[in-house]
Design goal:
about 60% helix, five-stranded parallel beta sheet, Rossmann fold, 5 strands, alpha/beta, about 210 residues
């Protein structure tokens, strides 16, 4: 099972990724974790990324893509993986498609957790107010203004990515505002629909 999980901050991707990991026994791959692991392992690409980061630069797409290409060849990813936080742009989505094609792999599905921005912001503002009422410092993630900017950035970058996968009939939208168990069930239905559609396509081409 090879999946891409899309969704803005606060949409519940972490919770759903954990459930999918447990069910399908596949790793969740985040670009941040992969970069740190490659640097720690001292791989050629990891050393290149380290040099860039040490100089205060942003790791370019080709380096991130190279690290992903290495990571999905690891034994624990042979039966599948969940990509979280990648691709963020159409350019990255095209690069991922090239990687998978070269390895004779396909994505099974791209799941997008669709949420209501206003509801998410209200949730963040409530948490911030509760922290203040307790006399606690407001977590960086719970700063409403910073969170609003993260949401705007996400939608600006990812809307074209959603369209990219929708054009390939790979995108399945799931209501991320539903209760956690309902979201999990909707993801399972989406995966079964994709699996059945793929089977029909193969049968039609036989």
């Amino acid at each position: 099972m090879r999946l891409v999980l899309l969704g803005p901050p606060g949409a519940g991707k972490g919770t759903q990724s954990t459930r999918l990991q447990d069910k399908y026994k596949i790793p969740q791959l985040s670009t941040g974790d992969m970069l740190r692991a490659a640097v720690k392992a001292g791989t050629p690409i990891g050393l290149k990324a380290k040099a860039i980061m040490d100089a205060g630069g942003l790791v370019p797409d080709e380096t991130v893509v190279g690290i992903i290409a290495e990571r999905i060849d690891e034994p624990d990813a042979k039966t599948g993986f969940i990509l979280d936080g990648f691709p963020r742009t159409v350019k990255q989505a095209e690069a991922l498609a090239s990687i998978l094609h070269a390895k004779h792999m396909d994505l099974d599905a791209v799941i997008e957790l669709v949420v209501d921005d206003r509801a998410l912001l209200a949730r963040i503002e409530k948490r911030a107010q509760e922290s203040i009422a307790r006399g606690d410092a407001v977590r960086a993630d719970d700063n409403p203004e910073a969170f609003r900017k993260r949401l705007e950035s996400y939608h600006a970058q990812t809307a074209p990515v959603s369209a990219f996968y929708a054009a390939k009939c790979a995108l399945k939208a799931v209501d991320g505002m539903a209760p956690i168990d309902d979201v999990s069930a909707a993801i399972e239905r989406a995966l079964h629909e994709r699996k059945n559609a793929a089977a029909s396509t193969r049968a039609g081409g036989a």
